[in-house]
Specification:
single chain, alpha+beta, two-stranded antiparallel ribbon, two-stranded parallel sheet, globular
């Protein structure tokens, strides 16, 4: 999301990214950017921005994890937008995951393939 007129991805990718230590070694710690913070988009624009990002994902292959943030103290102001977003995702076959579900999926997807020894699985 560059600004409220042009929804997109901060990092160039909508995918959670791993942190690295000071030596450049990647860690099993992920950060996922919140592309849709309620205080930036407001109650009317946030659902429209979400729909744009979903449509780009489905129609153009710009896949990503979309994170929307609705602060509890102001949730009533955004409830209709949040429900609209969830209905839109469901109607388009887009899963809605919890934080732990996303983390589990990322960890599985980025885990290196197990190393096998030469000839493993071969029979004589």
């Amino acid at each position: 999301m560059a600004d409220s007129r042009r929804p997109g991805y901060f990092t160039g990718s909508g995918l959670p990214m791993r942190f690295a230590d000071e030596n450049g070694v990647t860690l099993d710690i992920f950060q996922s950017v919140t592309q849709l913070p309620d205080e930036t988009w407001g109650s009317t624009n946030i659902a429209s921005a979400f729909q744009t990002l979903i449509d780009r994902s489905i129609n153009q292959g710009f896949y990503g994890f979309l994170n929307a943030n609705f602060h509890p103290p102001s949730y009533n102001s955004y409830r209709t937008a949040a429900e609209t977003m969830m209905i839109y995702a469901n109607n388009n076959g887009v899963p809605i995951w919890s934080g732990p579900g996303c983390l589990s999926s990322c960890a599985r997807a980025t885990r290196p393939a197990p190393k096998t020894s030469p000839g493993a699985g071969a029979t004589s």
